[in-house]
Structure formats: structure tokens, C-alpha cells
Amino acid sequence: MKLSATVVTYRSNLDRLEKALTSLQASIDEARRRGLLSGASIFVVDNGPSQLLAPLKDALRPYGNAVRLLHGHGNIGYGRANNLVLPELDSDLHLVMNPDVEVARDAIAAALTTMRDDPAIGIVAPAVRDHGGPGHLCKRYPSVWVLFLRGFAPAVMRRRFARALDDYEMRDLPADRNTAVPLASGCFMLLRTDLFRRLDGFDPRYFMYFEDYDLSLRAAREGKVLYVPRARIVHHGGDAAAKGLKHVVWFFRSACRFFARHGWRFA
Q1: Which of 65, 195, 242, 267 is the most buried (most CB within 10 A)?
Q2: Is residue 230 domain-resident?
Q3: CA 53/CA 59 separation, integer angstroms
Q4: How many CA atoms within 13 Å lie on the side-chain side of 208?
């Protein structure tokens, strides 16, 4: 199989980006060593300003031709930036990954093996550690109420409604077996390239947030979205509310677009 991967950056922490790319390359090398890969290509798509291009190029120089940089299109949003590589892809499987993710050495091999053995799988989602403990990237279909609780409610209210949050965050996912899930996270999702292309990638109307949920639901009409616990990552991001008013506005706009397209659920 051939693998391609896209990492979208915007004023990204370059130390974290280097760790992300180094871990991804090591995981690709392990999959190649196991005979699962015949080739791999990595794209870094930078939405940042031109004055930050020089240090980004310096950070990418050690990777040589293994990493291709796309730049100069401005801050067009997460989904549209990922879609820029669609005409360039010559792969069987395509990985969408954030620059604040570190990949376990055997994660790519575990994901590739799972997809090789079951052609009905459209997307693989990983197990994650987040802020020092187990994370919960896979989700059930959200309600307006649970999104408010998770992103903006005080801690005492979140504790009061912990059952609703636990259900949304799929904290009941088994740690020892592959499980079909409704929604995967765009911080790390491995897709069949032909499926990604048929879906025209991410919906570009989402500037940021919910484009991954939208893609998961559209992909699920053609194949399984599968949580694979042996594909392990560490994620250092999250928490839109803590990133400032701009991110809150993007979150609300994208949430409204998502519910308008896929159906409102208030509680």
C-alpha cells in the first residue's frame, strides 16, 4: 500500500511540529519494515503568514524530500487546507493529522493492518492520551446541551451532568478491541484515499471545528468508522473556549452549520 499524510499548520509551535513529524516518520518506517508500505509522502500545508515561512522551512529541512511544503494561500481554514492536496494524492490511504500529535511507533502499522484486513472500513480513529491521561477523541452525535457543558459550563455543572458528558465522549469504549464509532476526530484520522476523493474532502464551509464530524457522517454512508485501540497517539491540543473569542465564534458558527445539515439535537 501507499500512504500519504497531511499536516496543516498555522503559527504552529515548531518544537511540537518537529516531534509530530519525527514520530510520524518513525511510525511510517516501522510499517515499511513490516512490509505494509511500498511508499509514503507527507505534505505540510501552512496557513500562516509569509513572515513566518523562513523558520518553518528551517524546521522542515532535516526531513528533506520526505516532506513537501505548500504555502502562500493564506489562512483558508483547516478543511480547505487539507483539501489542497487532493489533486496531488497518489496513495491508497491518506492520513489527516494535527501538528500537535505524536504517533506511537507501531500506530501506523496497526491502522494499516486493520484497513488491509477489512475493505469495509472507511476511516480508522486511534486511541489517544491527552493532558497526561486517556483522551476521548471518538464521539457520539452531540446535542447543543452537551456541547455547552463540555466547552463552556463551570466545573460544578460538568460534574452534575457527568453522565451526559461521558456518554458523548464514549468513555465506555473498550480498550482491547476495535469498535465502530459515529464520529472521529480530525486531529488524526486515516481514510481510504478514494473515499476521501469521492467525498471531495472536507466541506470547505467549515472554517474550523465540526468539519471532521461532518466528514465522519458522510464517510459512514460508504464504510465503517472504526476505533482501533492499537493505533496510539498523544494529543496536546483541544479546548476551543480557552483559545479566545475568535475560536468561540468559529465553534458556534460551525456547530450551527453542522446541526442545520445533519439534524438539531438540543438535549
Answers
A1: 195
A2: yes
A3: 10
A4: 20
Please name the residue ranges forming H helices in the chain: 14-33, 53-60, 78-83, 107-117, 144-152, 155-160, 162-168, 193-198, 211-219, 245-262
How many domains are there within the chain? 1
Is 66 part of any domain?
yes
Range of the domain at 191: 2-262
State the average pLDDT over residues 129-149. 89
Return the number of other C-beta atoms located less than 10 Å from residue 95's C-beta: 24
- Dihedral of CA atoms 116, 118, 197, 147 in degrees, nearest 10, equals -120
- pLDDT tens-digit series, residues 220-254: 999 999 999 999 999 987 655 567 788 889 999 99
Residue-wise over 30-65: b if at least 16 C-beta within 10 A, else e? Answer: bbbeeebbeebbbbbbbbeeeebeeebeebbeebee
Backbone angles phi, psi at 85, to 5 degrees: -85, -10
Cβ partners under 8 Å of residue 87, min gap 6: none
Residue 267 is assigned to a structural domain of this protein: no
CA 181 to centroid of chain Cα atoms: 15
For residue 179, give the CATH number of its domain.
3.90.550.10
Contact 127, 177 (CB under 8 A): no
pLDDT score, position 247: 87
Q: Which residue has cell 476521548?
A: 136
